Request: fold
Amino acid sequence: MLSKKADDINKKAKNNGTLKNDVEYLNKIIGKEGVTKEMVQQGIIGFASAAPGVSINDLKPIHDYPETDYHIITNQLDVTGNANQLLELAYNFEKKFDYSRMVSQNFYTTKKNNKSEVLHLKMIFQNYENTK
Reply:
């Protein structure tokens, strides 16, 4: 009887380790768990602001789309800089930023007062919050 309980406890302990690995993997895919949407937006601003030569051009309000079991949180950031600076920023967001995941990026140019073109990078980030 006790050996069956011991085996059951050992199986649950092994499943717990697997569950922790699964949670870590999901955090990498959909963004860190337990971070408020405001913290995510502030994190995005802080991360972009720390990039040398990059300026924040536009930050859209947080978009919160509720589903039955979760909320989809979307942030949109538009930055300017030269090609290398913007590519490095996009790469660093992909590799080092864990509050949210970049789901879209778009490079485009604009002319300011009929002068030189300005290179922009528009990035869209999403993360999910469980409502249960």
Summary: The longest helix spans residues 2-30. The first strand starts at residue 55 and ends at 59. The beta strands are 55-59, 63-66, 70-80, 101-111, 117-130. The chain is about 40% helix and 35% strand.
